[in-house]
Amino acid sequence: MPLIVFKQQLSEDVVLMRLDAPLIASERRPGQFVILQLDDDYGERIPLTIADADPVAGTISILFQTVGGTTHKLAQYSVGDTVQSVLGPLGTPTHIERFGTVVCVGGGIGIAPLHPIVKGLREAGNRLIVILGARSKNLLVFENEMRALADELIVCTDDGSYGRKGLVTVPLKEICGRAPKPEMAFAIGPPVMMRACCEATRPFAVKTMVSLNAIMVDGTGMCGGCRVTVGGQTKFTCVDGPEFDGHLVDFDNLMQRLRAYKPHEEEAHHKCHLEMEAQKLAAQQKAGGL
Amino acid sequence: MSHPTRTQLEQAAQAQLDALKAGQEPLKPRERLALPAQEMPTRDPIARRKSMQEVALGYTEAQVRLEARRCLQCRNAPCVQGCPVRIEIPAFIQAISDGNDAEAIAIIRRASLLPAVCGRVCPQESQCQLPCTVGKSLKDVGKAVMIGRLERYVADLERESGALATPAVKSPTGKRVAVIGSGPAGITVAADVRREGHEVVMFEAFHKPGGVLMYGIPEFRLPKAIVQQEIETLRAMGVRIETNFVVGRTRKLLDLLEKDGFDAAFIGSGAGLPNFMNIPGENLVGVFSANEYLTRANLMRAYDKGRAETPIYPSRRVAVLGGGNVAMDSARMAVRLGAEEVHLIYRRTEAEMPARVEEVGHAKEEGVIFHMLENAKRVVGDEYGRVTGLECLCYELGAPDKSGRPRPVEIAGSEFMREVDTVIVAIGNSSNPLIRQTTAGLETDKRGNIVVDADGQTSIPGVYAGGDIVLGAATVILAMGEGRRAAAAINRRLAGGTL
Question: So what's the ipTM on this one?
């Protein structure tokens, strides 16, 4: 059972953790993910991208936002706790080669899975323009790591609290309009952002790879729950992906499928917050009583 | 519909048995043929629509003694020929007839590792019971000696009495074998290879071992406690089980052999890649593979709504596509999860259905509505991409196809709409590509199944394979048979020291 060796709260609802998982750390490649489960009897299995790995130390980094039951519970875990089940690395690794100039767009916690790809592209000798987007400054993650890798870094925030105010698609279009245009683009983030990025690059015919976060159970091709429509064909995100040519992805279908269990998740989220409130209250009472 | 209780069946059997004991034994063949085939006691059909508990309750003692007396003890034993692992069926039935249940299970265990599982899920009517002389004489395979039910009785008795012994393991040989997959094929290989004193490590991608016995076959047909007992036996024998380990990704197969010191490997990873219909609308929300639906319900326990975190789609009207055991399991699971109507759609007729007769019967008793000579053409949804209906098409039977079954032929213009919110596709699996794609030199056929020789060895020396990854989707007993064959070859290879 993987041990948590490091934990950092990056923002109110985003947590970075390093897990002791030597086999995954040595086998994983950029673009791959793990499936994590906190309770083998009743827990759910959730896919999480690998934000970084250290094969020497035998650790992997995961970054997650507390959106459902499992991520809320995991956020309560501390260094020294163990996670019951971690399976991986899963998915087809990113195809990395020396493309030339590559523009990489990361939105929200999508910056985490983008990080190892940017690292790989750097090692392959590409010229890198990185665009990072966040709702506001305090929600921006991995800025320093990305700055160290990028030839050019542009930060956008929705509220203008840092960098340029506005959407990542604005600088993306500007960069695609430069001569010579970039050879390749990667965009990882919420589905709406990825779709917008693909629409931004399409007129310039800049091939744009996206990484999809479909709902999964096993992560090895067995259930087919993660299927997406790509170029009119059905693909399994877990084994055929998670990366696909964004110009061919049916994002409407992806977003509809991501909402399949929405009422359930909202209930779980609500329950988590109620439980946390109850815990806080209990702690306050205890402190007050002393 | 009258539903006989277990007590009623017991009393009827006991009365028959008492009458026999008053007369002369052994019985003459004519007298044996006159004995009634014993009905399996089952849970009440209304009650079980809301229950995950096992449906078939198992024979009572009087029932097994009586059923065993129906066996003619044929010298040519056609039943043995029908059994993929060649259990000495007449011998174990004679032992039951003599009241010697311990001997009966010992005889079965010489050939089969999983009698409690096979007694429940084997398609006996198309294997051992098909050529049974009793069934032939009575011109009804449904009246053959109920071999599987007898097997289940002695296997359950052994387990429940705590008599389940851990098989003896020979002294360590220093050789190591990797078993990939912990389903029926893997369990068999692990046990047979471990017995010879070789170290065995079993790799399972899921968080719990057992493969299809855990994620696929529902609790109401195969209680998970039975599967766990088999796994515990392996552990007691010293087999190490690595869960959350997907060979091909966590570690490559060839690395296990070349870097990690394994002397041989067995691939029993199953046929895990669900087939879809390739019809419009199949990616709408509410369309599931049977694998996904059953895994959520079984392995992830989504039926336990208060406790399980894994959600299951809230369905009111369900269509299940397919006519095999997995289709029956899906339909019956949907009933239990609270669907108001469950429709099973199959493009041939009931006579061609690959599902076991017993499962079809149970599904009908539980209220599953069968639609034969019908197939899905298109799934339709609302503006949120959620399923609202299934366009179906009527079929008729034509000339026999390659499989020997009549070919279903579309009736042009017969389209009509069924109002459903959920569609479960249960039309089989293809082989999972993970190991194939990550293992250079592993030969597969055009369907992606691993090619093996008569010993179960693949194109890579020392690497063996068996079960669904070789056969395509098959049965537990066939997987076990393949596992035994490969294990024997692995043991010969390791004894010879050639690798």
Answer: 0.89
